[in-house]
Amino acid sequence: MNARTLPFLATLGVFILLYAACAIQYPSMLSSRVIGNLLTDNAFLGVLAVGMTFVILSGGIDLSVGAVMGFTTVALAVMIEGAGLHPLASFTIVLVGGAAFGCGVGVAIHWLKAPPFIVTLTAMFLARGAALLLSTDSIPVRHEFYQTLSGLSLSLPGSGRLGLIAMVMLLAFVLGGVLLHFTRAGLRVYALGGNARFAGLMGIDTARTTILVYGVSSTMAALAGIIFSLYTRSGYALTGVGVELDAIAAVVIGGTLLSGGVGGMAGSLIGVLIQGLILTWITFDGSLSSWWTKIAIGMLLFIFIGLQRLILQFSAPTGRTG
What does CATH list as the number for 5-18+27-313? Predict the structure, then answer.
């Protein structure tokens, strides 16, 4: 068995066993309605995980995605309800703005030689502060186009439905997977995360790759903001506080090494579904607090980081020179 695929296979095994245990206790967990709701309720987290997969594969971290998501929701509400812009125009503005913001973060990380943790922490404060500057109140979005989009769904066998935002999330994973696994840009991301110095010596444009990675991450954060805005039909500056940690956890549980260079998009999707499945099980149980989700995720994260450490230790070269 390839050690690089072991974390993903472990994640897949955990998901299958967890779902089987839930289905045995609550057979209705197998219904298409629950599956559709599982995908719809976690759509914004899934989109964040797509961008975070690029970042962690490159060996970086992005703490600003939750703040960018929150800024997006309140910016949309202000533009649509305050300025009277059409939602489609507002969506375009926030996506372009998110991409530009992420590229700026990538430029700062590469050219200032600053750690991603510090730069994205600074970006997080900037985005959150800007969101609070726009409004400290929750702003409802009553535009009829929102109602139309929220009502779009695809019927599943049984009584389930797959909402528009769930379909957007799945499309984001497919496109992200194609970009990551079947293009030269994706190979450069893996090379940058494997060893940035060697990647530069091999002629890979590390500056452009870093800017691409953080540009994708912030664009996905803006898209997650659009999804959350459609989900709640409102904008609030404090939306997404701490959600960046959930996205990081989903990617790591999905088998992507925190040191970069190893992982994939399919694992991140399963990591998101594991988090959603635990919350769904707690909802079915009815007697447990939702905070048990955090405890379960913390335990899984600890296990998978330990597994990654073992893989790195056993895959490290042991031969002596000379």
Answer: 1.10.3470
